[in-house]
What does this fold into?
Amino acid sequence: MNATVPATSLGEPNITAIIFFFVFIAATLGITFWAARRTKTTEEYFAAGRSISGRQNGFALAGDYMSAASFLGIAGLVSLSGFDGLIYSTGWLVGWPVVLFLIAEPLRNLGKYTFADVVSFRLKQTPVRVAAAIGTLAVVTLYLIAQMVGAGNLIKLMFGISYEAAVVVVGTVMLAYVLFGGMIATTWVQIVKAVLLLGGAALLCFLTLAQFSFNPALLFAKAAETYGAEVLAPGKQVANPWDAISLGLALMFGTAGLPHILMRFYTVPDAKAARQSVFWATGLIGIFYLMTFVLGFGAMVLVGRDAITAIDKGGNMAAPLLAEALGGTGLLGFIAAVAFATILAVVAGLALSGAAALSHDLWVSVYRKGDAPREEQLLVARIATVVLGIIAIVLGIVFKGQNVAFMVGLAFAVAASGNFPALVLSIFWRGFTTGGAVTSIVTGTVASLVLIGISPTIMVDMMGAEAALFPLKNPAIVTIPLGFASGVLVSLIAPEATARDAYDAKERRMIVGAE
Amino acid sequence: MRDDIRALARGRWRVALLLSSIVFALYFGFIIAVAFAKEAIATQIVPGLSVGILAGAVVIVGAWVTTWIYVSWANRHFDAGVKAINDKERR
It folds into this structure.
């Protein structure tokens, strides 16, 4: 579209990418084979036998969390609009201190596999678990759609295979890890991915800054010189201040309600290791976001906006194009393979947490009233995993061509409004009741979905209406208070004596641990 | 025994709430400044480094520092409290 656009080999089969891709697949399937022989019980399948160390879990949490949306998406957003990308990076990071201060340790001491274990601890099992499973599956589904559609588009762009084939490959490889290797394989895939992604980003950062005397300010100044000083200032992402604040709330409190993140705290031996793992994760993820910010500016200056938007209007290919500009097709191939690994690790974590909700919460705890033979539990867990894998592939194909970038923000809004208030209230408030928990989860989840449905994102951008019924793109500023208020109100109107009396036992276990 | 646990839980709750408020204030201070004081945020301290970029980096470093404070507090004081309760029970 522009004569000055340099040629790129992106989208043509790239020999380095294919080699790295097969090395990664071979290595991770090797890990899966090793993990499969260690996976004989449900505890190993869903919680890696509680054998993961704090530091290992920190890397795995980072691998579970740093999605392609944050690597390619934030680098792309920064390359096109500069400073605005930092609003997302900081928001995605400040969720982690919240997880550490309020959730991680009580969660580890109180639960087995899912966050529903914690919410239902002294409440009636069936209603709370059904509600929590709905909250979990809503978040997992929205997140899966965003990841699978992103995966299809990215792999199609990078490797030149068809969208459907890309979705099926991601779904199948992920299923192989999770089905056979369970949480042990998933954990190590996430650790390998975290190391590769951080290493790849660090290498790109080093090569970029080497051209600017290792002074980021010189890079930013060069960007401002070429594209105007507005790249260093708030731009159109914060056109409506309330949108920015509402999104900020969803990001800050959503992380603490993401089922696939919460589930990882059950893989460590005790609360102290859970604490240690968030410390590592926060450090790694913070460094990663600082690097993506530099990479975005690097792509803006060294690749150029026209060349980035010529390949993908959303800017998602900024980081791979920067890799090509800095290190030729070899480096491009490496980064493409890293992006692929990134998607696989996130999708595996999501599928496992969805499967835990289906099998542990719904089948074993609700349908079987907690009394199912061990072989049956493991079998149901594996069947649930296959179901999730198929759902992931189908969602990826059904949503082909849709703009799904907003779904990650929506998943955070549902997690922050549906899951987070119920978790916090059940941990810290003696007077919380079964009715309160169910109301809180259902209200937060449904309100988020409805308000997104009538938001400008859906009504104006997708359906072409003049104006939306609800003015904000992200509903969190309304739905988080709604989730808390509805839970408190129902608990106050109809107190539950047995739940109140059982709080001492819960508090004891929360502090001292099991036994 | 119950009172020991209650006291420990309350102490942890206070630290957790205090540190959460600090992170909340840092981040929403940043977001509100970005949303409502765009001119000030755009000011460049040295060429290339705007107030906004520096503030964003401060939020990230602030998240690290608060998690570090919590972990060192919990490793030292909270774990000692848990150990004291366990020792008392064993006796």
Remarks:
- The radius of gyration of chain A is 22 Å.
